[in-house]
Structures are given as C-alpha cells and as structure tokens.
Amino acid sequence: MGIAMPLAEDFLASLTCPHPKVIFDRLRKGPTHKGMVAWKWRSEVSPADLYCYLGARFGRPNGPQNFLRNDSSDNLIHWEWVLDHPSGIIHIQGMNFRTELWVSSGLNVSDADAAREKKQAKRAIITDRRYYTMRNTISYSDH
After folding, report:
1. Which of 35-44, 48-57, 84-93 has the lowest average pLDDT?
2. In sequence order, which residues have a C-beta less than 8 Å from that of residue 2 and are 6 or more positions away?
C-alpha cells in the first residue's frame, strides 16, 4: 500500500452503491486494485444500526455474498454491501460476531483515518434519523 493520505471529510457522503450486475462484471474481469485492508468493527456501530442505515441509504444489500447465502441464520456472512468511492471500493460484511469493512488499497487509509471513519459512521447513523425509516417489504396475500 502507498503512503496513507488523510481521507476527505465528505468520505461517507461520497459513497455510491453500484448495481449487482456491475459488481459481478468486475468479479469476472478480476481485481483492479493491489489488495484490500480489513477494518473489523465489533462494538463501534451495532450491526442492526449499520444494516438499517445502509438499507435506507442504498437499498437492498448488493454484494456477491447475498447471492450465496441461505435464508437461515446458518451463514457466516449475513449481508454485504459493495460501495464505490472515487478512489476505491469498500465491501461491508455483516458477520456473526463482527462487521468487516474491506477497503481497497486505492483508498490508502491510515489507522487514524480508520478510527475517524468509525466515529463518523456512528455519528451519521445516530444523528440522521431518516435512515431508520425503512419500507415494509413484506407482502400479504389472501389465499
């Protein structure tokens, strides 16, 4: 990884969510970056809060792991979003005992930036209540 540069203050705001077809096309082409760095979140942001925030902001999880999972609690990865940033890609995976963020090396994230982003993410989730309003996707039918 190159020299770690400070992340922009609008890092979270600049994330976008590509369509799953775009993600699978990338996987077929192979990696375009030179590696990824893992951030492990255990208690910084609750998985439920993060799931609600990401779901309200970006829609349904779009990562490849969502297409490999079972509809049960017997999964190592329960949900995954893949988010684009102008400088790289982030995979956010909700696992049994932690949340992992896989950050592409193009972002050159320092440990200090990783700690700051955890705090920014927690603050964004806690203060922006509109992300807690999620659409009810259960459909009922008269059978």
Report:
1. 35-44
2. 105, 108
**Considering only CA atoms, which of 119, 123, 143 is closest in space to residue 131?**
123
**pLDDT tens by residue, 51-83:** 888 888 899 999 998 888 888 888 889 999 999
Asked if residue 86 lies in contact with residue 14, where contact means CB atoms within 8 angstroms, the answer is: yes
Residue 39 CB partners (closer than 8 Å, separation 6+): 100, 101, 103, 109, 114, 117, 118
Cβ 56 vs Cβ 133: under 8 Å: yes
Structure tokens given for 34: 């030179």
Phi-psi region of 133 (alpha: psi -120 to 50; beta: other; left: phi over 0): beta
Question: How far is it, in rounded angstroms, from Cα 21 to Cα 39?
Answer: 26
Higher-pLDDT residue of 107 and 72 is 72
Q: What CA–CA distances, in Å, run from 28 to 20, 23, 87, 94, 133?
A: 12, 9, 21, 24, 35
